[in-house]
Amino acid sequence: MKIVFTGGGTGGHFYPIIAVAQAINRLVEEKKLVEAKLYYLAPEPYDSHLLFEQRIEFHRVSAGKWRRYFSFRNFPDMLKNLGGFLLALWKLYTIYPDVVFSKGGYASFPTLLASRVLKIPVVIHESDSHPGRVSLWSAKFAQRIALSYPEALQYFPREKTALTGNPIREELLNPISRGAHEFLELSDSLPILFITGGSQGASFLNEVVLDILPSLLEHYQVIHQVGKDNFAEINQRAWTIMEKSQYRDRYKLFAQLNSTALRMMAGVTELVISRAGSAIFEIAAWALPAIIVPIPEPISHDQRTNAFTYARSGAAVVIEQVNLTPSVLLSEINRLMSDKTLREKMIAGAKNFAQPEASRAIADEILTLALEHEL
C-alpha cells in the first residue's frame, strides 16, 4: 500500500499532513494491515526531521504561485508548474500510489494534475472557510473531500464531502501542566499569555506587542513565538526595551516552540493572541480563550472568515488588523483577563468547536480507498 502526500509551503499545510500520516501509521498497526509506504511530493521538505520520524520519503517537485494580480513573476512560475507537473507525472508513474492526499495550496497543483492524468484516487482537505483555488479545482475529480469549517460545505459536492475539522499532530492534543512552569522558567504566581503569529511569525502583530510589552509585563508573563525569520530582530529590540525593567524575566521569546514546549505552554497559558490560520484548531483543542487577529483580506482571502467563524463559537474575540493599535490590544487583554466568568465561557466554546478525531477520520478514509484500489 502506497500513499502520496502533497501540499506545503507553510506549517498550516505541512503539519496537518504529518498528523494524517501519524494516524495512518497508527491505524495500520491497530488493524494489522501491511505497512503503508508514505511519500511527500513538494517543492521543499519543510521539516525533514518530522518526515523521517513518520517514515515519509521526500521527493522534490517544483511548483509556482499564481498571483491574483498581474505580476511578471507569474510567467516563470508557470514554467515551474510545467516542470513540476512533468516531474510529478514521472514520480507518480514510478511509485504508482494507491491514493494521493492533498492539503491544497500552489505546492500541490503539479502533483494533483499528474494524479488526474494517471487516474490515481485523490483525497483533499481544505483548512479554510473560504476554499483556495487549487482545492476548488481538484474537488472536481477528488474521490473524497474533508473540510475544517462548515461554511466551506457550500463550495463542494455534498455526496463526497465530510466536515472533519483540522488534523492536529497527536503529540499536541494533550497539554501538560505538571512541570511546565519549571520547564519554561516561569512563575506559577502570575497569569501567562501566549502570543504567536503562526509558523511564519507575524511582523505586524509582533510590532504591536513590543509597543505594549512593558505594560504587559507589569501584570502578566508572556511567551512570544515570533518565527525564525523575525527572531534576531525581535530579540534585539525586546531586550533594548526591557534593558532596565525589573520584569524582564517574565518575557520568554522563541523562534518556534517544539512539541513538548507547546504542550507545556498550553497547560499553563490563560489567554492566546494569534493569527487565524490552522493554529485556531490547536487553540480549540487546548480549550484556551483567544484573541484572534486575522491577516487582512487583500493579503489572505480566508483568515478573516476563519476568525469570525471561530468567534461565533464563543471561544474567541476578533480584532481586525486595521483596528489593532497597542492601546486596543492591551485593553482587550486586560478586559478578558479580569473576567474569569467570560474566560470560562470561552473555554466551553473552544471545547465544543474542537474536533480532535479529525486526523483519524481522514486517515481511515484514505486507507479505505487505498485498499479498494489495491484490489
Q: Which architecture name of the largest domain does CATH use? A: 3-Layer(aba) Sandwich
Give the amount of beta strand, in percent: 5-15%
Q: How many domain regions?
A: 2
CATH class of the largest domain: Alpha Beta
Largest sheet: 7 strands, parallel
- What average pLDDT do the residues reach? 92
So, the CATH homologous superfamily of the largest domain? Answer: Glycogen Phosphorylase B
CATH fold-level name of the largest domain? Rossmann fold
User: In DSSP terms, counting alpha (H) and pi (I) runs of 4 or more, how many helices?
Assistant: 14
- Percent helix, as a range, is 40-55%
- The main sheet orders its strands as 3-2-1-4-5-6-7
How would you characterize this protein structure?
The chain has 375 residues and is α/β, with parallel strands linked by helices. It folds into two domains: 2-168 and 356-374, Rossmann fold (3-Layer(aba) Sandwich); 174-353, Rossmann fold. Helix content is 44%, strand content 15%. It is built from 14 helices and 13 strands. The chain has helices spanning 11-30, 48-53, 74-95, 109-118, 133-138, 180-183, 203-219, 231-241, 259-268, 279-286, 303-311, 326-337, 340-353, 358-374, and strands spanning 2-6, 37-42, 56-60, 99-102, 122-126, 144-147, 161-163, 192-196, 221-225, 251-254, 271-274, 290-292, 316-318. It has a seven-stranded parallel β-sheet, sandwiched between helices. A six-stranded parallel β-sheet has the order 10-9-8-11-12-13, sandwiched between helices. β12 (290-292), α11 and β13 form a beta-alpha-beta unit. α3 (74-95) crosses α4 (109-118) and α7 runs parallel beside α8 (231-241). The termini are close together. The mean pLDDT is 92.
